[in-house]
């Protein structure tokens, strides 16, 4: 990652982020004043159990949800004050999403699934280039039903990065996969971070995955409980769970 953190080259600055959901007569506090940054070129892991606020924070960073209170700035642009149209443009131009379930279109090949995104991007990479980057150069014309779970997830990563986003947000990307398959998916994410310099945040409840990060954010009960810096990043192959 170099000196991105030291230089203060932040992609996101979140301050006092609170999210409250009204569930009938009950209020659910998903986030309780979270402060965090994500730096250019960084690979960050958000670690915590279900219900700790990880996905809520990621969705707010990605413009899929809005904070009840606090501020979230993306390169100085205040997402908390943005109109719906501005958030749509922000998501389309700057953010790549990868979720636990792949959400591929079954009737389209891997190449066509990626191309569906590049058609609406400003300066996309070729679908073939994105698929090569995640190690699927020989599977471009296969349909999702002809691909394994790990291959489908790598297509989803290729689709997310093909628009050249500044940030890649991954929510439990290995949650539905076994270790061997999960490692290959994490290698694809690590390659994108290293070769494209894409600021990357990975949500997981799996503590072992934290070893591949520059920085680990531990979340608990809507709070950021602690922040840990890894002196050296481990490769996905060195992780075991």
Main features:
disordered N terminus; 241 residues; globular; Rossmann fold; four-stranded antiparallel beta sheet; 10 strands; six-stranded mixed beta sheet; 7 helices; alpha/beta
What does this structure look like?
The protein is an alpha/beta fold and 241 residues long. It is 29% helix and 29% strand. The two termini are 25 Å apart. The strands form two sheets. The chain has a six-stranded mixed β-sheet with strand order 6-7-8-3-9-10, with helices on both faces. Strands 2-1-4-5 form a four-stranded antiparallel β-sheet, covered by helices on one side. The model is unreliable at 1-7 (pLDDT under 50). The chain has one domain (4-238): P-loop containing nucleotide triphosphate hydrolases (Rossmann fold, 3-Layer(aba) Sandwich), CATH 3.40.50.300. Helix 4 (110-118) packs parallel to helix 6. Helix 7 (179-196) links the parallel strand 7 and strand 8.
SSE layout:
Elements: H1 4-7, E1 10-23, E2 26-39, E3 43-47, H2 54-61, E4 69-74, E5 77-78, H3 84-94, E6 95-98, H4 110-118, H5 127-133, H6 149-161, E7 167-171, H7 179-196, E8 199-204, E9 215-220, E10 223-229
Helix pairs in contact: 4-5, 4-6, 5-6, 6-7
Shape-level CATH architecture: 3-Layer(aba) Sandwich
- Gyration radius, in Å: 17 Å
* Sequence of strands across the biggest β-sheet: 6-7-8-3-9-10
CATH class group: Alpha Beta
- Please indicate the count of domains: 1
The name CATH uses for the topology is Rossmann fold
Quaternary state reads: single chain
Percent range of helical residues: 25-40%
Q: What's the N-to-C terminus distance?
A: 25 Å
């Amino acid at each position: 990652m170099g000196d991105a953190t030291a230089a203060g080259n932040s992609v996101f600055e979140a301050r006092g982020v609170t999210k409250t959901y009204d569930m009938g007569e009950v209020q659910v506090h998903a986030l309780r004043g979270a402060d965090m940054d994500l730096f250019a070129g960084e690979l960050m892991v958000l670690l915590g159990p279900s219900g700790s606020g990880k996905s809520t924070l990621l969705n707010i960073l990605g413009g899929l949800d809005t904070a009840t209170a606090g501020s979230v700035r993306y390169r100085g642009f205040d997402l908390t004050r943005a109109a719906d149209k501005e958030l749509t443009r922000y998501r389309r131009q700057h953010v790549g999403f990868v979720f636990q379930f792949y959400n591929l279109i079954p009737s389209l090949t891997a190449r066509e699934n990626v191309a569906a995104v590049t058609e609406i991007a400003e300066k996309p990479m070729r679908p073939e280039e994105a698929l090569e980057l995640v190690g699927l150069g020989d599977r471009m014309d296969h349909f999702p039903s002809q691909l394994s779970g790990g291959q489908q997830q790598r297509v989803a990563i290729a689709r997310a990065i093909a628009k050249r986003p500044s940030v890649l947000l991954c929510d439990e990307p290995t949650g539905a996969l076994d270790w061997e398959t999960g490692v290959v998916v994490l290698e694809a994410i690590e390659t994108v971070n290293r070769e494209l310099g894409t600021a990357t945040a990975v949500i997981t409840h799996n503590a072992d995955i934290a070893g591949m990060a520059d920085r680990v954010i531990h979340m608990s009960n809507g709070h950021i409980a602690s922040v840990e810096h890894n002196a050296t990043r481990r490769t996905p192959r060195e992780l075991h769970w």
